[in-house]
User: Fold this.
Amino acid sequence: MTKKRIAVIGGGASGLVSIKCCLDEGLEPVCFERTDDIGGLWRFQVNLQHPTVLFVEYENHRSLHEPYYMMPALGVTLCEESHVREDAHIQAEVTAPHGYRFSFQTTVCSVKKRPDFPTSGQWEVVTESEGKKEVNVFDGVMVCTGHHTQAHLPLESFPGIEKFKGQYFHSRDYKNPEPFTEKRVIVIGIGNSGVDLAVETSHVAKQV
Assistant:
């Protein structure tokens, strides 16, 4: 019996877990990742088009990855993003059996039902890589692009922000603390990103 082919869109944390679950169910996943490596949100990139996570506390994210934990391979509970990326590669290469492939630097242009979808349940997926478009048919599609892809900056919650003469931006645009040297900084939000930024900028800023 031919294995059902599943298109997994995104090679980040959710994509890797989805690949593992597909393999466990005897499916054949094909992962499309627009960048040149796996990791997604957990992979630090200077390119401002992509989000940044500087540190990850494994215990806080354990439920997200069940039953496919991303941290045990390195045996740490608090680590820098480079460790997360290393662990992701270990899990992808060692834990997961063969039977899947990654298509890096590939953008998914469209996903639509085939004309015979009511009977076949199949999807038509159009991808683009190096300027060339390709059409493939899959038995299922898993969208794993994450909900942190688009930054949410609720400026309407801060009346008078248009008169503020300083700089303001979303945490996804933060890359290093140097621009905050000897400046007074306010960090709004005390989640993982807020704490990371507050700690890092405190080493160079006048006040945080």
